[in-house]
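Subject: Re: docking follow-up (2-acetamido-2-deoxy-beta-D-glucopyranose)

Dear J.,

Thanks for your patience while I sorted out the input files. As discussed at Tuesday's group meeting, I've set up the holo structure prediction with 2-acetamido-2-deoxy-beta-D-glucopyranose included as the bound ligand rather than trying to dock it afterwards. The sequence and the ligand SMILES I used are pasted below, so you can double-check that they match what you have on your end before we go further.
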Amino acid sequence: MFFLSMKKVLCVLLVLANRIVTNATVTYTVPASAATGATALDPAPVGLSFEFFAFPSYFKNVTATNQCLQNFETLTGTWPPIRIGGTTQDRATYDPNTSAYVVYTVAASTDAPAALTFGPAFMTLAGTFAGSVVLGLNRGHDNITNTIAAAKIAKSSMTNLLAIELGNEPEYWSGVQPIASGTWTPATDAASQDDWDIQVGQALSTQSIIQAGNSNSAPPTWGAAELISTENTTAKSYVYDYAHHNYPGGTLTSLMSHSSISSNVEIFTSDIVAATSVQKEYVLGETNSVSGGGAADVSPAFGAALWTMDYALRTSLANIKRTYFHHGTIGACYYCWWGRYDMGAPYYGAYAAVAALAGGSYISALDDGSTNYAVYIIYDSARKPLRALLYNSDYYAVGTGTRGSQSFVLQGLTAASVKAKRLTAAGAGSRVDQGSNPTFGGQTFANVTCAIGGTEVFESTAVVTGAATFTVAASEALLLYLQ
Ligand SMILES: *[C@@H]1O[C@H](CO)[C@@H](O)[C@H](O)[C@H]1NC(C)=O
Ligand SMILES: *[C@@H]1O[C@H](CO)[C@@H](O)[C@H](O)[C@H]1NC(C)=O
Ligand SMILES: *[C@@H]1O[C@H](CO)[C@@H](O)[C@H](O)[C@H]1NC(C)=O
Ligand SMILES: *[C@@H]1O[C@H](CO)[C@@H](O)[C@H](O)[C@H]1NC(C)=O
Ligand SMILES: *[C@@H]1O[C@H](CO)[C@@H](O)[C@H](O)[C@H]1NC(C)=O
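The structure tokens for the complex came back this morning:
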């Protein structure tokens, strides 16, 4: 009898434990209005970076590009900001006499060129884009005459020019680039940046024109605080903003983990404070999941889409004004949001982030970033809650047992019911090119054209005495429309 009843008790406990694992609950109260500490949002925080040599091909030879960018504009009314740059900006020489966008030769179409030239048409093409453009020019070659010649054409032919970068990831130049032929340290690079910022700014007769920094190695060794400490008032006057690069890497599980994303973004806290203390913006000028074009087993997967979504919101929360997701060599780019043929799963995460942030003026998080579960609130210009984004970053892969879920109880809701769009896929490993398309609000994006397809699905949840429960499966997110 005794043993039997113990067994019963154990059974009940096991059932309870199982329910806690698969269907735990977190409860939060949605503030009636944005707190004083809520972060102000850029009109278009989700940007794209295009590798310098590949930029003309993306815009002239890849059908999806314009529609993929326009889909964001349809959501927000603002074209996403773009940045043109990368390693090949410091391999590029401006040639005023070529009519081509870019001129180079490579052994294989998936190679990046070791050297290239570009003509005025490159800047004319960049000037046709309807959103803002940050243009990365060459400092590595140590030919400021050539860079100023290109900068002048950029200034005169691009009404959308937001800023110019002078050099990409200078910490890797030692033994590679002529400008780094002597001693090359954070301090010598900073002195070089300050000098070039002043010379290029003066040649253009334009202040607030340089996107400075552009390192990838983590601060404080390379970063905005270190750079700013070397700048006098003159150098500072030519800086528009400070940028850093970031490729978190790791496994798919660690990449998409909300607590990992939160701690990764915290690396930049001191640099963000340093930039804002001199009244400048701070951005991630080049970023994506894994460096070097991505990792085959991580970057094209739906889990990387969830990373893209959460990271775009977490960086915005941290007062990183714009985050430019890098797009490299066409046909050799695991993290790319689209290619010539197939869409990439990460585009769905970017789209969900843009949908969450669209028209928002402020953002706050209700969670502290220490768990796998995220709750963001996006507020309108009157500081009223506009949307909420719920993210369950528990890792679930197809074929690994029952998919768990997390219940989010939200209190303080004012409407009678809440509409929602779900970002989901069969599992974190789902890839478009392997036949497993994610969906956002039931919709997909067509290969080659990037046209949105399928019927838009809104879920509806009743609000009872100001509260509602939303269930989000492992490796899934839910966007709530609060107005
Ligand atoms: C587009 O592709 C064609 C054919 O592959 C090529 O000749 C042309 O140079 C490309 N144009 C750009 C801008 O990349
Ligand atoms: C461009 O062409 C002009 C003559 O048309 C020539 O004088 C000049 O040296 C050329 N510049 C370059 C960079 O090739
Ligand atoms: C630097 O650029 C200028 C202008 O484009 C060019 O005339 C000159 O030859 C370049 N100098 C070197 C050392 O390449
Ligand atoms: C500011 O620093 C630059 C070097 O970065 C120097 O050439 C310039 O003279 C300095 N200006 C002032 C006003 O001190
Ligand atoms: C895109 O193409 C892949 C095959 O490469 C296919 O598995 C997938 O279903 C297609 N996506 C859509 C939305 O049609």
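A couple of observations from a first look. The chain has two domains: 24-38+364-481, 42-361. Confidence is low (pLDDT under 50) at residues 1-21.

Let me know if you'd like me to rerun anything.

Best regards,
T.
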